[in-house]
Amino acid sequence: APRERFELYGHEAAAETLATAARSGRLPHAWILAGPKGVGKSTLAWRFARALLAHGASNCPDDLAVPQSNPVARQVAALAHPDLVVIRRPWDHDKKRFKTELPVDEVRRLHGFFSRHASEGGARIAIIDTADDMNRASQNALLKILEEPPSNSILLLVSHAPGGLLPTTRSRCRLLTLRKLNDRSMQEAVAALAPSIDQKAQALLSALAGGAPGRALELAESDALAMYREIVELLLSLPRLIGARLFGFAEKVARAPVERGLYLFVSLLSQIEERTLRGAHTPLDGIPGEDALLRHLRAAIPLERWSGLWEMLKADALRADDLNLDKKQLVLNTFFAIEAASQR
């Protein structure tokens, strides 16, 4: 979890921006930490909160570091610090997953939290992860706090797409955008996050994660490299898919927990389809060993059909999740559609 991570990769300048603002004595009361999913926004938010609570605003170091042995660090990791709260989508006990939206009642908890005095006399800090999950009612409830911020209050809004937030929300926050990591920082991050895999696999993991170390960690923990290689083997067999291999793969996807099965399959295949389309017109940062696959796919299926297949995959995945449809059949139908397109 981001609150338990003590390393920050590639965002030294962003950390220094926050530290400088804290030491200035004029720290904005609300920030939007924006950037691609998995790039490190939540890790930075927790790191900043930890530094403020451990050092105080006037003594924040440029790198926002707090030793792991610090009592504040242990409290934050255990979600036990009285001056820090995280607002996020609650668990849906009926559906056995997190709710799709961050409801207004969760945001209203902030009124009670900010009404109390900080236990150590410093700031009271709220992290909203992610602000994109708020519906309109939730954003309106937050707006009341942003318009009349309590003294010594700090709001950190994590957002993958800040353009989707209400303009009134954005205008009352300072925006700090985190970019994708460069190759060197990404390789360093992947080596630290997935030390048990060899360098060749680390390079593939780094490329598939697209500059987002959090995404790399998700992929490493879900055995995504094995699934990616199986998808590549199946696609290389076009125009005639190998039936036994396809049915075995579909069964494996269906049996896995949805995050490591269907969601991962859709994500990896969508990436390949997107690179098939985009790479036909503009040079892309390559995935190691994928050039031959993309040439094969462009030769097998016209680009306009790939565009339709990509849209169909995303639509079918949404329907399968909403309607609890047969996941094995979705995987099979996806490959059958690709096979049919290659034989026209």
Task: Characterize the structure shown.
The chain is of the alpha/beta class and 344 residues long. It has two domains: 2-177, Rossmann fold (3-Layer(aba) Sandwich), CATH 3.40.50.300; 222-342. 53% of the residues lie in helices and 9% in strands. It is built from 15 helices and seven strands. It has helices spanning 12-23, 41-55, 71-77, 104-115, 136-147, 167-171, 183-193, 199-209, 213-221, 224-236, 243-255, 262-278, 291-300, 303-323, 327-342; strands spanning 30-34, 84-87, 91-92, 97-98, 124-129, 153-159, 174-177. Strands 2-5-6-1-7 form a five-stranded parallel β-sheet, with helices on both faces. A two-stranded antiparallel sheet has the order 3-4. Helix 5 links the parallel strand 5 (124-129) and strand 6. Helix 11 runs antiparallel to helix 15 (327-342) and helix 12 (262-278) packs antiparallel against helix 14 (303-323). The protein starts with 11 loop residues before the first helix and ends with a helix.
Write a concise keyword list for the protein shown above:
344 residues; alpha/beta; Rossmann fold; 5-stranded parallel β-sheet
Task: Produce the secondary structure layout.
Blueprint: H1 12-23, E1 30-34, H2 41-55, H3 71-77, E2 84-87, E3 91-92, E4 97-98, H4 104-115, E5 124-129, H5 136-147, E6 153-159, H6 167-171, E7 174-177, H7 183-193, H8 199-209, H9 213-221, H10 224-236, H11 243-255, H12 262-278, H13 291-300, H14 303-323, H15 327-342
Parallel strand pairs: 1-6, 1-7, 2-5, 5-6
Antiparallel strand pairs: 3-4
